[in-house]
Amino acid sequence: MATDTQFIGPQSLAQAYRYVADTRDHGKDERLRIIDDSHGIWRCHYAGSCSKVCPKGVDPAMGIQLLKGHMLGFR
């Protein structure tokens, strides 16, 4: 996040995964379109730092990787 001030961040991406993975939510295509950006999901290089420092003990890095699977059509 220090190198791209417009990066939406790991928390936002992990939250997006939560909704994309929920089959009851009908905003999947719109959410994927929003995060499919150079300041969105593709800015994450999976260093895992976000998961190590998460104050809530959440693993946003895993959510981001699963979200990338949705982006690429693997889910």
Keywords:
globular; mainly alpha; Fumarate Reductase Iron-sulfur Protein, Chain B, domain 2; 75 residues
Give the structure's gist in a few sentences.
The chain has 75 residues and is mostly helical. It has helices spanning 10-20, 28-35, 49-53, 60-71. The chain is built from four helices and no strands.
Notes on the protein architecture:
This protein has helices spanning 10-20, 28-35, 49-53, 60-71. It is mainly α. It has a single domain (10-71), classed as Alpha-helical ferredoxin (Fumarate Reductase Iron-sulfur Protein, Chain B, domain 2), CATH 1.10.1060.
Tell me what portion of residues adopts beta-strand conformation: under 5%
Indicate the structural class.
Answer: mainly alpha
CATH topology: Fumarate Reductase Iron-sulfur Protein, Chain B, domain 2
What is the chain-wise order of helices and strands?
HHHH
* Low-pLDDT ranges: none
Major sheet attributes: none
CATH class equals Mainly Alpha
Q: Kindly, what is the distance between the CA atoms of the first and last residues, rounded to a whole number of angstroms?
A: 27 Å
